[in-house]
Design brief:
Largest sheet: 7 strands, mixed
CATH topology of the largest domain: 60s Ribosomal Protein L30, Chain: A
Radius of gyration: 22 Å
Shape: globular
Structural class: alpha+beta
CATH superfamily of the largest domain: PurM-like, N-terminal domain
Number of strands: 11
Number of helices: 10
CATH architecture of the largest domain: 2-Layer Sandwich
Amino acid sequence: MGIPAAHAKILPTMARDELQFVEWLRGRQESHPAVPIGIGDDMAMLQLASNQLLVSSDMLLDGVHFDLRRHTPAQAGRKAIACGLSDCAAMAVRPIAVTVSVAFPEAFSRADAESLYEGIFALASQFDVAVVGGDTTRWRHPLAIDVNVVAEPYEGIKPVKRSGARAGDRLYVTGPLGGSVTSHHLSFTPRVVESRRLASELGERLDAMIDITDGLSLDLWRMCEASGVGATLDEALLQKIIRDEARRLSTTDGRSALDHALSDGEDFELLLAVHGEGDIGSVPLHPVGVVTASGFNIERAGGACEPLEPKGYVH
């Protein structure tokens, strides 16, 4: 349903553009069983199977989280929603819906705006997530995107917090680390599917989990601080999971490949603390160290144990 012709005639051009864009968004919205009321009203309505609701927000800025001089609006939109879905993966919960608010630069065209939202809708559809609303505006500044995610627990799975790690737990990550700035930070797939399998298969053995957004060493330190424990990373194990892009960067920027893996951030892999012996399930995991009662260290390949400074991206 479009704008009535009689109304369209009396609207200023910019108002017509906004209303037409909202109509375009409504047309792109797919029906979703959890969304009785979607885009078009003052509020959306969600019908959740559980009685628990989880929410998260992420704001991304041009020049900080992406660069529109080199990246497309679709890539920026995809990353914005991927970051929100990664929060759901970090707690092993089901993403249901998102709202997206965008401050467009004055130079942004209608085609640019549609491209941005196509990136959003594509990833949302992949994970059966409804885009239920938000807001749009223009300003004399770079592009800003704010995504709010609504999620609920999976049946029989409690949300996994970062505060449950305990001494003796083994530390694992779900994939390679470092060098994400080259391309991975735009193309990663949030570990939503893997986190559900991990929580289901590991059960009570999964003590804590966090997604690696600001760097392994910094996010591990955050887990330790929340849990009241320490940790020791193993350099020999870390050397096995350094991304090739990190090794290439290290040949030109004066930083070691290991430093890239420890502190680059935007890997969007999961970091887990798991206790007990036995099978670790069907999701490929890579051991990186252990949780200790105190201290924050790295065991070098030669056997020496040194203090580790938590480094990474600080907002």
